[in-house]
Amino acid sequence: MDSNAVANIPVGIIIPANADLKLIIFDFPSIRPLGQQQTRVQQGDTLYRVL
Q1: Is the N-terminal amide bond of 10 cis, ω within 30° of 0?
Q2: Which of 4, 13, 41 is nearest to 50 (CA)?
Q3: The predicted structure's pLDDT at residue 46
Q4: CA 41 to CA 47: how far, in whole Å?
Q5: What letter does residue 37 receive in the DSSP assignment?
């Protein structure tokens, strides 16, 4: 993957290779994956799509 494509991912955030193919929402600052496929997005949330 091109390094520029993931430039906006915070340093230190690593998505496990065995993660399910679903949208993972990390809640900052605690950085805990809710693991919900659908959830309410609030300001400050960062969205990751695991490909």
Answers
A1: no
A2: 13
A3: 59
A4: 9
A5: S
